[in-house]
Specification:
The structure holds two protein chains of two kinds. Chain A is of the alpha/beta class. In chain A, 38% of the residues lie in helices and 14% in strands. Chain B has two domains: 81 residues, Aspartate carbamoyltransferase regulatory subunit, N-terminal domain (Alpha-Beta Plaits, 2-Layer Sandwich); 47 residues, SH3 type barrels. Classes of the chains: A alpha/beta, B mainly beta.
Chain lengths: 311, 144
């Protein structure tokens, strides 16, 4: 990869595997990594609010022995005074060693990277890219299913607008997935251009489109749930009618494989019933936890410290 | 009957599909320049049946990429000393910048002057579609 991580495809498959290996190593021996970022400063620039991603990065850097500066929303930055992103980034280059940024405008991290000599990690730009969510998902799959290859994965919910799902689908395709089952209301189907892309580039992957999760849940090794947002529907009636079809509850989980896992990038609203939180197959909270370790691995890679130190 | 003289030095934008002459005229902002310009419309043409022509006298920095987006029938003649010294054919550009704006309202290019998007041609059959290098969204080109 280059200096920055702007989109998932900035990382090769080999680099993803290497990050997963180092994430596992950090998970097993956190004390070995607790000082590798001593004296390093991470600028955490969140131009829009975030809970998990921001704190996940903050925790990752602190656990590596580094420090955090930054802001949690644009109201407390110079952006409110009209400062351009490029100027903010130029100045933060003097104050920090690495920048993590979230921005509501799509393409903002790419613009920032054009004005930065220090590494930039995209922590989400609108509905565009969110590469560390993809890494978190891959790390979770790798830990629970031992490999990234040869799985049947059911993607459930909003497959049209959720571009983090698009990134995950494309990345997993590159790891020789067996089958993708796409479960969504017609209005929120995976865009045709993406289905065409998969068929053209990965003809061996079976693609099944389903309207009801209960019809296909028994086949899935991984059930990847996403949030269906009310505002995506033209009227309340359609939303109310459909939302229960995509609710994962105890009844549906009875049909799932014993060794299946249920993932969700969180926050969930009402697509996963609280009653399955205790099901050992529900790993969405662990997924958030694992996000810290893979981000720790990523920070060490981008700062060239720890296992990535250049001797 | 046409009462338009040839030009000693300048540019003739020829073989514009009939009806698109005004689009070219407006997009090149020819009403704002000091050069003498002539727009001829619905001229009989062997190849096109009817065509439009624009003549611009004197020096003019012509954006051929823009012409490629409007009409690939266009041929440009460069005139010096009353003679055509160069003929240029326009084609659909693989990359463009400055000419079009990203159609995605959430794109950073709409709020930050530093963001100068570069668009790459993704689809050429029927409508032209260009992908923004910042947000990856496709922008359809429609000049009317």
């Amino acid at each position: 990869m280059g200096k920055h991580l702007i989109e998932p495809k900035d990382l090769s498959n080999d680099e993803v595997i290497e990050l997963i290996n180092i994430g596992n190593s950090i998970y097993a021996n956190p004390a070995d990594y607790s000082h590798v970022c001593n004296g390093k400063i991470l600028a955490s620039l969140f131009f829009e609010p975030s809970t998990r991603t921001k704190f996940s990065f903050d925790t990752a850097m602190i656990r590596l022995g580094g420090h955090i500066i930054g802001f949690a929303d644009a109201d407390t930055s110079s952006a409110k005074k009209g400062e351009s992103l490029a100027d903010t980034i130029r100045v933060m280059n003097f104050y920090s060693d690495i920048i993590v940024m979230r921005h509501p405008k799509e393409g903002a991290p790419k613009l920032a990277s054009e004005y930065s000599d220090i590494p930039i990690i995209n922590a989400g730009d609108g509905g565009h890219n969110h590469p560390t969510q993809t890494l978190t998902d891959l790390f979770t799959i790798s830990r629970y299913k031992k490999t990234l290859n040869n799985h049947t994965i059911a993607f459930v919910g909003d497959l049209k607008y959720g571009r983090t799902v698009h990134s995950l689908i494309k990345t997993l395709a590159g790891f020789n997935s067996k089958k993708f089952i796409l479960v969504s209301p017609l209005e929120l189907s995976l865009p045709q251009f993406l289905i065409d892309y998969l068929k053209l580039n990965y003809p061996h992957i079976e693609i099944q489109i389903a309207r009801y999760l209960e019809d296909v849940i028994h086949e899935a090794d991984i059930i990847y749930m996403t949030r269906i947002q009310k505002e995506r529907f033209f009227n309340e009636e359609d939303y109310l009618k459909l939302k229960n079809s995509f609710l994962l509850d105890k009844e549906k989980m009875k049909k799932a494989k014993n060794d299946a896992i249920v993932m969700h990038p969180l926050p969930r609203v009402n697509e996963i019933s609280y009653e399955i939180d205790d099901d050992p197959r529900s790993v969405y909270f662990e997924q958030s936890k694992l996000g810290v370790y893979i981000r720790m691995a990523l920070i060490t890679k981008m700062l060239e410290v720890g296992d990535y130190a250049i001797s | 009957m046409r009462l338009v003289n040839g030009i000693e030095k300048g540019i003739v934008i020829d073989h514009i599909s009939s009806g698109k002459g005004m689009v070219v005229y407006n997009k090149l902002n020819l009403s704002q320049i000091a050069n003498t310009t002539v727009l001829l419309m619905n001229i009989p043409s062997k190849h096109l049946g009817r065509k439009d022509i624009i003549k611009i006298e004197g020096d003019f920095d012509l954006n051929t990429a823009l012409l490629g987006l409007i009409d690939t029938n266009i041929k440009v003649n460069i005139i010096e000393n009353n003679e055509v010294i160069m003929k240029k054919f326009v084609e659909v550009p693989n990359q463009v910048s400055d000419i079009i704006k990203c159609s995605n309202p959430r794109c950073i290019s709409h709020i930050d002057d530093y963001a100068k998007p570069v668009f790459t041609l993704m689809k050429q059959n029927g409508e032209l579609e260009y992908q923004c290098n910042y947000c990856d969204e496709l922008t359809k080109i429609k000049f009317k």
